[in-house]
Amino acid sequence: MRTEGELRALVSLLADEQEGIARTAWDELLNAGDAAVPFLEAAFDDPDPRLRGRARALLEELRLAALEEQWRRLARKDDDAIGLEEGCMLLAALGGAAGRERAVASFLDAVAGSVRAHLPALGGLRAMGEVLFENLRFRAGDEGNPEHHFLPSVLERRRGSPIVLAAVYILVGQRLGLPVYGVAMPDHFLAMYVEADGPAYVDCFNQGQVYRYEVLSRILRRRGVSAPDRVLAPCSTRVMLYRMLGNLERLYTRAGQDRLVARIQRWRELLVTEGRE
Fold this sequence. Notes:
This protein is an alpha+beta fold. It folds into 2 domains: 4-75, Alpha Horseshoe (Leucine-rich Repeat Variant); 79-276, no CATH class. 63% of the residues lie in helices and 9% in strands. The chain has helices spanning 4-13, 19-32, 37-42, 49-75, 84-94, 101-122, 124-135, 151-157, 162-175, 213-222, 228-231, 237-254, 258-276, and strands spanning 139-140, 159-160, 180-184, 189-195, 198-203, 209-212. The strands form 2 sheets. It has a 4-stranded antiparallel beta sheet. β3 (180-184) and β4 form a beta hairpin. The radius of gyration is 22 Å and the shape is elongated. The chain starts with a helix and ends with a helix. The model has no long low-confidence stretch (mean pLDDT 94).
């Protein structure tokens, strides 16, 4: 473990004119992890703009490394133990919206409370639709806008991509113990509400439009899907998070953010490789 004096010296070397020395200092501080944070933060007041810039960049790298370790731990869990809310919040933190867990949980709790009040009169499916799509007016968002791919901003704007809107539906329903799941269609994502007479498929991207199995099955068969039963079955949270990452990968590839794309690709790979162990 590095001493305080060593960590302070390493921070000062981040601005060394010899790039080899600066790179070595960077690597050593990265290996030091959280112990290096207060010394990097102290460099924010340094008069050297090069040191200030590198200290901020290294702090961001440390933050992302810590996030990736949290993601790795999540990916190692069994499919039925992976928390959708936890996964969505880690993705939000990757996108720069860290520290919003309490606000998100509080909002979803409040929405679930509103649905609960409507349950006796409307039943689960209608109550969910009434609160989310009529009262709160969750709607389709521009899928080219990053804000519509992260749970905290989707809850604030009431606009989102199909899969994140479905995640909102599922997270609210789960709080009430309702039978809600995700359904990974080939080119779309739906929520499912299982009723006594069969599943109802909710298109959260289309103001909560409800479809029945027979309708969707016919559509899929016309599109050449030979086994619609498999497509229309509930998917795991692991699959949902994998799809979310795929959306982010395409979004940031178009934006030319290569470093973020590389990290997103690693996170997708971790969902596959860690899930096999």
